[in-house]
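ok so heres the complex, three chains, lmk if somethin looks off
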Amino acid sequence: MTTSVDYNDLASQLQGQFGQGFTPAEDYVEVPCAFIAKAAEYMKNTLGFDYLGMVTAADYADHFEVIYQLQSIKTNSSALLKVRCPKDKPFVPSLANLWLGASLQEREVYDLFGIEFTEHPHLKRIVLWDGFKGYPLRKDFKGKAYGASD
Amino acid sequence: MNWSLSPDWPGNFWLRLIIIAVVIIAYVMSSVIMFIWMERRVIARFQSRLGPNRAGPFGLLQAFADTVKILTKEDIIPTLADKLLFWIAPAIAFVPTLMIMAVIPLMNGLQLADLNVGVLYIAAVSAIASIGVFLSGMAGNNKYSLVGAIREIAQLISFEIPMVLAIAGLVIASGSMSVSGIIEAQNIPFILVQPLGFMIFIVAILAEINRTPFDLVEADSELTCGFNTEYSGMKFALLYLTEYSEAVVGSALIATFFLGGWRGPLLPGILWFAIKMFASFMFILWLRGTLPRLRIDQSMRLAWKGLLPLAFVNLFIIGLKSVFLPDLSLWISVPAYILISLILVMLWAMFMRKERQSFGG
Amino acid sequence: MALATEQFILNIGPLHPSTHGVFRMRVTLDGEIIQDVEPVFGYLHRGLEKLCEKHTYKQNIPLTDRLDYVSAINNNWPYVAAVEKLAGIQVPQRAEFMRVIMGELQRIASHLLAVGSLMNDMGIFYTAFMYMFREREKIIDLLEMVTGQRLLYNYMRFGGVSMDFPTEFLPALADFLKIMPGYLDEYDTMLADNEILLSRTKGVGVLSAAAAIDASTSGPMLRGSGVKWDLRKDSPYSVYDRFEFDVPVGQNGDCYDRYRVRMEEMRQSLRIIHQAVEQLPAGSEKTSVPLRLRPAKGEVYTQIEAPRGILGCYLVSDGTEKPYRCHFRAPALINLTVLRNLLIGQKLADAIIIFGSIDISMGEVDR
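and the predicted structre for the whole thing:
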């Protein structure tokens, strides 16, 4: 049975490695935006989380959240990480250089939310066409179907 | 044949030519229509479905319905296509098949031209049809067709040599290069006397007429029709006709060279010829219903590493037999050669399988 | 003197007989060898995730069907499981078993289509394709008996399933379970030792285990490369821990192994359905749930093992009757990450085979 890691334990480990800012919650650990790539690398190489399950994002009133799910196939455990980034400067370090599986999912998040992943090898729109203006999954997106005139 | 108004009429020669030409063209066209029907119904039964059954009883008039449809379609020529080649290529592809049928006897003496180098003529003309296919692929200014055309030439060259070598074995055994001479020498059909040559010839002729498992030239699922992607209307009808008349010619060649042509007891010659031709085509259809297709490098590997050495060995054995043991009784030579062929084919199959594993496919 | 050659770019798709759905690959070819691949997605993007935010929870269930339209029943599952977790809804035992039976039947149908299309891509090999579709028709008839639909079933509900089995379903299912192993043996007779099939799939498109884990592949692609990771065994959801079944695993990670894994998985699914039918308890088929459900505020991520891989649903609820954010982790999109690496250096004819063995469904990839 897949066990979730003890998030308090995980937060303190990451804190010991990288410093302050790692807040545990009941279901996830919140990682400061600048440290996500380093923390993921630490979890992959040292803690044995070799499988990146999911990358997605959500749009809240005052910030974006990017959610990662990591899994360890050997120890059959999973961990959920969250990163908050401000709406005016949506830049998050990319995990595509650690896991190839992150590349298409991060492109999708960029396409639909506008969050830019720095150091992504090939960041461009994936499901929408290249000239599309706007980011549809944001809550303030005004498209034709949502009453916009353009 | 003496169909004449009077024995000395100078027009006898031309009358005979015209009548036989009409008979051959009628035979080829009706065979093509029957083959189209057979292909669609028999393959459908292989695939546990019905096949066309609306146009006429048992779908027999389907070919006519298709012809009417194709002829009423707009004839589109791509803007950047090479106009001259685009126009001529289907004709270049179709005419050689009729030319080959000119030297094949449908019945005793019912042959348009009894060339005494008939075999050489067949080998030469059969290559021209493939050139027509290649030109039609090139002329359309379409990358898919170009890939199909490239594959076609590679396959043509690879399989031409084993085919000719297999026929050379027949020439040695029958002592003449004319087609009627080969038929006359078949007191028992050559399929029993030269089984190895038969196997090589069948594989090579399948590749020459672009049928499964060698139909990568017009691979439907990869190249969306290959060389005839850009064609529509009458030109497409001509290319479609070419595909089936090549099948007719391929079956006719198998029937002539290895099954004894028009010879057979009781029934008239042309009926035996038709039966043998249809039996060969049924075998070809059976292969189509059962086998997937090879990749171009795999089919070329089969030709150069598999068929070519076997064809040389076949020629060598036949040559040795005709020089040193010309009077060996058929009761001994036929089973002996069948046994030798089976052993050789099994050895080569093991060799090719090791090749495949070492290459990783 | 070397011959001057030129590379050219070929567009495979979006309208093409063998890209399963509308998918486009811009392939740079040098003769017949592929130099570069650029996959272009998005031809079937319908904005599913944004639509989910506009509808109530129950109205989203038919939308989830349209994700992977080839195996539709499995798509409802992570979504309803996520909502049940958030809202604390209990599912009766009978409903869990019914979900398993329908899900496994759908898995067999989906694998039949996957393998049949792969055979079709190998050379108008309609024979194998039509035979497999004959069996898929039988399964679809069974599913139609229960749900009334043939392709997009809209079967699961919060707290169970929408309808109970009719009386003629279980005897028909028992008949099907009796004849299906014979048909699977027939496929093996026709295909497993076919020389041409072996030479076209063995050693083609090899994906090593490390590369598969790195690229987050899942499902038969991951298991074909030798990694034994199946959510039904390693993280059992619903009632899968009560069944005994094996997880087939390949060795080399080539197309042949992925094809064998799918064939074996069909047999294992038959075993699971057998055991589920034997253990099927009596009871109701769903607990009653308010029409406009308002789950508690929170977020949850559930995963199930769909035929194409791990299908997950990340659901954020803000206490209202519409989801705040609903994301579907699509296995087909993530499995396509390796497409470029697998294709470079192969021949064009292999590209179609490799693409067919990844087994995608465009509804999932584009959502």
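quick notes: Chain C touches chain B at residues 8, 10, 16-18, 29, 31-32, 119-127, 129-131, 134, 190, 194-204, 254, 347-350, 352 (CB under 8 Å). thats all i got rn
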